[in-house]
Design brief:
One of its GO terms (cellular component) is fungal-type vacuole. The protein is mainly β and 604 residues long. The chain is built from 8 helices and 34 strands.
Length: 604
């Protein structure tokens, strides 16, 4: 059993390294593996348990999001593996079948000493339009910004192995600005009929350039979209995507991220519903609409490969350039920033505000600890429900509250408040809704000690006006995951992302309604999630890191039955201190480790 599995592990590792083309870039960073994922602990106090975060180092924008023809989602991201701030930008890479359970992959695109790989996108060149893929119909092409001291240009790299390793195109750059610009970046490419379309930002001119191409190598200017909605100080990370309209055919949406200069500070994302004819985008109107009313949802990207007639999948960076390089996870846990929860999006024409992009969390599937809620009350009335959840090890919780029978706006009254708090320190994050007046919903991270008390940009309250539906209903859903809270109002008509870093673990939930009109009914339920990282992250990434190219097969007698047992953090500390020693320890304990990590299925 022990040796069969060990050989299997080695075989998997070798096939994924030797039979694949090597990336043309090699990392100049000492200590950063070029042929294996970077290991991460994923059990630290602030580490989200159902969100993606990098194993170590600094992460910002999602990049190159696409779903391959096997149904695997690929998430690349702006990644500095050597520091806890941005600078040495690579493309990190992770894959998932459900967008909650992630497997780290080796870095996909490497910075060099004098150039960084900035944001961009990925397409699948099914018809070999690029000529890179004479023998396959699943060739992957990354289109990204190469940032150097003097200039930003658009480069491409291609992958024969479905997006795990890349070869930079010898004819790069494929697009540069004339005259040269240091503010020309973040290409997002989509397929429109028989052509490729790129949207790319002239960041400080507030222009999104539209380009077309037949081969991904030669790009022709088609049109510009300029000075719409909010300007801030820079436009970044444009996205162009087609999505259904609730109850109707698809429409187009142009998304533009703004930083710095968001109305509430730092980074924000705006979008324009509209029409696109292959070369020109026309917004339905001049209004600025934002994707999220919090401060931690930026540079979001739609996954390539989902037809425009289906709901799209959106994921964003859950932080803000005003404080992302200072948040305390850096000093104490060695990582910074997570991604948002993955959302399903479509357009709707809703109460009063008109066109709206609706975002709801993708189904949680198998994530629940149990289908049975931790607590529930389907006729709460004007009352409270509370639950303490020390037994939910992940500390990741989902709650839903549905209210119906609310009278016409003018007469509606009362409040709904919820709190997630720490039994240890009494810190809390909270939110609430006013059913009267302006129908305001608010969120607060004010009662969290530490970082928020000292950082002037870590604004502590957010709100939005959310008119009550004409059918007299209001629905609130929330997901909390150690250091991130996301709320969705009325099935995603408004949503907000808020990060926070409490000194004590939040382990209690309370929801209270008060002063609601007679006849209003309130239904609440709260569920716990299992961690998607607990059973696999450290173990799997560590194992492949060790086995790739280095796993020597030990003879049976060298399996020391009395060897020290290493678990969780210890594996990593060991690995950091002395890779060779750690490798021996891991091999000695492999049998038990494989049990722990539930790796049998993975290797089979
Ligand atoms: C947005 C951004 C992009 C750029 C990348 C660099 O957050 O500034 O415009 O490509 O980050 O990391």
């Amino acid at each position: 059993m022990f040796f069969a599995l060990l050989f299997a592990a080695v075989a998997v590792a070798q096939s994924s390294s030797s039979s694949m083309p090597t990336s043309s870039s090699t990392s100049f960073d000492s200590g950063v593996p070029t042929n294996a994922p970077i290991p991460g602990l994923y059990n630290e106090t602030w580490r989200p348990q159902i969100h993606y975060s990098p194993p170590k180092g600094f992460m910002n924008d999602p990049n190159g999001c696409f779903v391959d023809n096997n149904g695997t989602y690929h998430l690349y991201y702006q990644y500095n593996p050597t520091a806890l701030v941005a600078g040495n930008q690579h493309w990190g890479h992770a894959t998932s079948r459900d967008l909650y359970t992630w497997e780290n992959q080796q870095i996909a695109l490497y910075a060099t000493e004098d150039s960084q790989i900035f944001s961009g996108s990925i397409v699948v060149d099914v018809n070999n339009t690029s000529g890179f893929f004479p023998n396959q119909n699943n060739g992957v092409v990354a289109i990204y910004t190469l940032n150097t001291k003097d200039e930003q240009v658009q480069d491409i790299a291609y992958s024969y192995d479905g997006g795990y390793t890349f070869i930079e195109y010898a004819g790069n750059p494929v697009l540069a600005s004339t005259p040269a610009s240091s503010q020309f970046r973040d290409p997002k490419v989509i397929r429109y009929g028989e052509t490729w379309v790129m949207v790319v930002s002239y960041a400080q001119e507030f222009v999104i350039g539209f380009f077309t191409s037949t081969d991904l190598k030669t790009w022709t200017p088609a049109s510009n979209f300029t000075h719409g909605g909010l300007l801030g100080l820079q436009w970044e990370c444009p996205n162009l995507v087609q999505m259904p309209v609730q109850g109707g055919g698809p429409m187009w949406v142009l998304v533009i991220s703004i930083n710095p200069g968001a109305p509430q500070g730092g980074s924000i994302t705006q979008y324009f519903p509209g029409y696109f004819n292959g070369t020109v985008f026309t917004a339905v109107d001049g209004a600025a609409r934002i994707t999220d009313f919090g401060k931690d949802n930026y540079a979001g990207q739609f996954f390539y490969g989902i037809p425009g007639t289906e709901d799209q999948v959106f994921i964003a960076w859950a932080s803000n350039w005003q404080y992302c390089e200072e948040v305390p996870t850096g000093e104490t846990e060695g990582w910074r920033s997570s991604m948002s929860i993955p959302c399903s999006t479509l357009l709707a024409n809703v109460t009063r505000s008109g066109w709206d992009m609706i975002s709801t969390p993708l189904p949680f599937g198998q994530l629940y600890v149990s289908q049975q809620p931790l607590a529930q009350n389907y006729s709460l009335g004007n009352s409270s429900i509370s639950v303490s959840y020390p037994d939910v090890v992940s500390r990741a919780i989902y709650f839903q509250c549905e209210i119906s029978g609310i009278p016409n706006n003018t007469y509606s009254q009362g409040t709904l408040n919820f709190t997630f708090s720490s039994s240890q320190t009494h810190e809390n994050v909270s939110g609430g809704f006013f059913f009267g007046g302006d129908n305001s919903f608010w969120l607060s991270r004010q009662n969290v000690q530490g970082f928020g008390e000292t950082n002037p940009f870590f604004t502590d309250k957010f709100s939005v006006a959310n008119p009550i539906n004409s059918n007299g209903t209001f629905v609130l859903e929330g997901v909390i995951d150690r250091s991130i809270l996301e709320v969705f109002l009325d099935h995603g008509r408004n949503s907000a992302t808020m990060t926070f870093f409490p000194q004590g673990e939040l382990d209690m939930f309370e929801l209270t309604t008060d002063g609601l009109n007679e006849g209003v009914s309130v239904s609440v339920a709260v569920w716990g999630f299992n961690s998607t990282w607990a059973s696999q992250a450290t173990c799997r990434t560590s194992l492949s890191a060790h086995f790739l190219g280095t796993a020597q097969i030990l003879p049976p007698q060298s399996k020391h039955s009395n060897s020290e047992k290493l678990h969780g953090e210890d594996y990593n500390q060991h690995f950091d201190r002395n890779p060779f020693e750690a490798r021996i320890a891991i091999i000695c304990d492999l049998e038990e480790l494989l049990q722990d990590c539930r790796l049998q299925t993975h290797l089979a």
